[in-house]
Amino acid sequence: MAVLDGRTAVVTGGGQGIGLEIARVLAEHGAKVVIGDVDGDLAEKAAGTLGGPGAVGMGCDVRRKDQVEALLDAAADLGGAPVDIMVNNAGITRDATMRKMTEDDFDAVIEVNLKGVWLGTQAAAARMREAGRGSIINISSLSGKVGMAGQTNYSAAKAGVVGITKAAAKEVAFRGIRVNAVQPGLIRTAMTEAMPQKAWDQKMSEIPMGRPGEPREVATVVLFLASDWSSYMTGTVQEITGGRFM
Ligand code: NAP
């Protein structure tokens, strides 16, 4: 029997990158998975590549409460019960120094990375209360721990994700719902491939393990937090960084 047999999971921003790998690993371990992405076609295609007991993909902009609710409705339809695992993964960057960053760049990053996580956590917790169990995993970033130059918007949002995680964990623990966060460092995805070579080299020089992480190395930690293997953990923040800024 697989560790997530009988469980239903939702992954936002799961059309590609870390989110898609999280969806794949959860499915490989027995979960039915609903992938949401702002690009609905991408989400559908991504779901079609998953193995496991069943997967669907659909458009979901995490800035829209109605769309987040619809995503969770899809999970209930697929699993026949409220969602068991919610992974708030969708994120964007709009990097610039404060001197050059526009107010629109600031607002855009806060809306997706911070408000999106809050909406997902709120909506999933409301449904998990009915079942008296559930695991919510929020994708923060090392940038939210140390603060990165050129990322005043992103660092603020990702530090805020830690705040949401800990406050929500305290509110819902008595209902059997756990809320944890992960902070990946430099992971090889479309988001980081867009980075200038100089910035990539600088980050690489800061990693004691001497290599970037792979999306699967984030996904396996999310699997641990999603499963009963972590049954006594809530409000925690797991760094997945190859030792960078330990
Ligand atoms: P990615 O490859 O860009 O994938 C993120 C997905 O989320 C994309 O398909 C993106 O669509 C989608 N998305 C954007 N805005 C959305 C919205 N409003 N609603 C729903 N989906 C939306 O990024 P990634 O590298 O896999 O990152 C995944 C998460 O890990 C993010 O929260 C990121 O901040 C975090 N993270 C990544 C790294 C890293 O090194 N890669 C490190 C630390 C933390 P578009 O492509 O159309 O924008």
In short:
This protein has 246 residues and is α/β, with parallel strands linked by helices. The protein contains 9 helices and 7 strands.
Describe the structure.
The protein has 246 residues and is an alpha/beta fold. The protein contains nine helices and seven strands, in the order E-H-E-H-E-H-E-H-E-H-H-E-H-H-H-E. The protein has helices spanning 17-28, 40-48, 65-79, 103-131, 143-146, 152-172, 190-193, 197-205, 215-226, and strands at 8-11, 32-37, 55-59, 85-88, 134-139, 177-184, 237-240. It has a seven-stranded parallel beta sheet with strand order 3-2-1-4-5-6-7, with helices on both faces. Helix 3 runs parallel beside helix 4 and helix 4 runs parallel beside helix 6. The longest helix is centred in the middle third of the chain and has 29 residues, at 103-131. The radius of gyration is 17 Å and the shape is globular. The model has no long low-confidence stretch (mean pLDDT 97). The structure holds NADP nicotinamide-adenine-dinucleotide phosphate. The site of NADP nicotinamide-adenine-dinucleotide phosphate has 29 residues, from helix 1, helix 4 and helix 7.
